[in-house]
């Protein structure tokens, strides 16, 4: 299935500008204000969650006092990571074979989707950077160190 712009343009993948974004009237529309408000609300919620659950005050959350004193003495500071801890799964109960199986299934699903996209839309689909990102994610699931 191909989606092409009307007309006889040979390069239909190029977007056509519909509004002048350099004009002040474009930015003073109510739609822009609603979008800006939506983004700012999301940023504020994310900042609150990071402030609440990360950083030096995170250990003072309600319920942290219930831990015994010995466990708090051995606790390392919040946000401190050693070696490759950022890449390890949070749940220690997950067997590495399940993670490998997940990566393999993800790789084959993504690779098959990529093949279908290239067959249906042709090589011109790689003009879009999102397709290159999709390829990089596919390679990430296909090539793993562990």
UniProtKB/TrEMBL annotation:
Bilayer-spanning residue ranges: 30-51, 97-119, 125-143
Keywords: Membrane, Transmembrane, Transmembrane helix
Any GO CC annotation of this UniProt entry: membrane
The protein, known as: Uncharacterized protein
Native species: Triticum urartu (Red wild einkorn)
Gene: LOC125514889
